[in-house]
Write a structure and sequence with these properties.
alpha/beta, 2 domains, 8-stranded parallel beta sheet, 5-stranded mixed beta sheet, binds S-adenosyl-L-homocysteine
Length: about 250
């Protein structure tokens, strides 16, 4: 493209088309105005997860509000892999890290799952959503991952849609190597499930093993930290059967 693309990128939750006015939320106005020192008349890139990415002009901006005018579509929306990450919440910083990196790795949804040995008692869903949105803005994604409601492992499995294959990372060596599993997948919807730092309970692995929609997966001969396991599994799946097989269409 001849024109350079705007450096600042924002997710907005409104439809995007030429000539419309997009109101900025308080946080975004604050970020643009006070953090990035942007001014009315400058350009930003915006996306909403549905209408692709747009070049937009900042029409008005104060510390607490403002508006944008989308002018031109820079990239169309494209289908993305249907790849979920289900993870046992970790300590705050490690959870932030997993959410940020999994968003960069292209997960379509993120779901906190409480297992027997999960230490964290709850998750801060607003914080997860903000981290996912910021990571998506920064990595040039055209969508932000959906946040699934936090669930116990038991309920998650009881309500499971069997058309989605559940790949659970089994640190006990009960699973086939991930490359072998990935090469047998045929474009179906996927979910990666990673246990907490304390690992899965034996009863949980026994229950998972019996489920027709679940596959045990191994990530090599070393025990990985939960965050490493999540990101390693996602990278392997994107490379073998996800969108790392495509040549990127950057703007
Ligand atoms: N405390 C456990 C380790 C848990 S590691 C123990 O010492 O045995 C945290 C999670 O990462 C595990 O529940 C599993 O989902 C994943 N994981 C770590 N290493 C793995 C490996 N080599 N293969 C598959 N999954 C692994």
């Amino acid at each position: 493209m001849a024109q350079t693309s705007p450096k600042l990128r924002l997710f907005v939750d409104t439809p995007l088309s030429e000539g419309m006015e997009v109101a900025l939320g308080r946080d975004q106005a604050h970020w643009l105005n006070t953090v990035m020192r942007a001014k009315a008349g400058e350009e930003v890139a915006v996306f909403n997860g549905r209408d692709g990415e747009w070049r937009a002009e900042i029409a008005a901006l104060t510390k607490s509000g403002g508006s944008l005018h989308p002018a031109e579509q820079l990239r169309p929306q494209r289908p993305e892999p249907d790849l979920w990450l289900l993870f046992a919440p970790l300590k705050k910083d490690a959870t932030d890290f997993v959410v940020e990196k999994a968003t960069e790795l292209g997960v379509s949804a993120l779901g906190p799952v409480f297992t027997r040995h999960t230490v964290a008692q709850r998750v801060n869903s607003e914080r997860l959503a903000a981290n996912a949105r910021e990571a998506a803005e920064q990595c040039e994604r055209l969508s932000i991952p959906r946040l699934l409601p936090p669930e116990s492992l038991e309920k998650l499995l009881a309500d499971w849609d069997p058309t989605r294959r559940l790949l659970y990372m089994d640190e006990t060596g009960g699973g086939a190597p991930i490359a072998e599993v990935a090469s047998g997948l045929d474009g179906q919807s996927l979910a990666v499930l990673v246990g907490p730092e304390g690992g899965f309970a034996k009863s949980e692995l026994d229950a998972l093993r019996d489920l027709p929609f679940a596959t045990a997966v191994g990530l090599g001969p070393r025990i990985l930290r939960a965050d490493t396991a999540a990101l390693a599994a996602l990278a392997c799946l994107q490379a073998w059967c996800g969108d790392w097989r495509d040549r990127p269409a950057f703007r």
